[in-house]
Amino acid sequence: MKKTNLSEHNPDSIPSAKGFRIGVIVAEWNNEITDKMADGAVATLIQYGVAENDIELIHVPGSFELTTGADLMLRNRKDIDAVICIGCVIQGETRHFDFICEAVSQGLTNVSLKHEKPVIFSLLTTNNMQQAVDRSGGKHGNKGIEGALTALKMVALQKELTR
Predict the structure, then answer these.
(1) Of 75, 87, 94, 141, whose Cβ has the fewest other Cβ atoms within 10 Å?
(2) Catalytic residue among 9, 59, 96, 115
(3) 19-161 fold
C-alpha cells in the first residue's frame, strides 16, 4: 500500500537534538504555504530536544534567495549546526519555475559543501496550489516536518563522524 502521509516516521529513529542549533530560513513568497511548513519544522525541532532559543528563524523574499540566506547565516553564525531552507515554487506558464528550482537545488548543495554543514532542501516544487497545500500540512504531510527530521539526522551523523 502506498504511503500517503510522507511525514509519518518512527520517533525512535530520530536522535536527541539537545544542544543542537538549527537555522530555519523561510521564503516569504507563497507564505500561506511556507509559514505552515516553518511551523511544522520548528515544532518538530522542539519536540526532539532543540531549545527554542537554539532555533534561528529568518525570512527571505523568495525561494531564489534561500541560497544567499543560508550562506549568510552559516558565514555569520558559526554555531549553527544545520540550516533548513523552506520555500514553495508553483509551476506557471513560463520556464521561470525550472530556473528557480534548478538554481536553488544547486545553490543549496554548494552552500552545504562550502560550509561543511547540512543545508536541508525543503522546497516544494509543485504543479499547482492544491499540491502545495497537500504537502504543507495536508493529506501528504508537511515537508517542513520532514526537513526538520532530516536536519536532526544529518547533524547527528556529522557529530558522530567528527568525534
Answers:
(1) 94
(2) 96
(3) Rossmann fold (3.40.50)
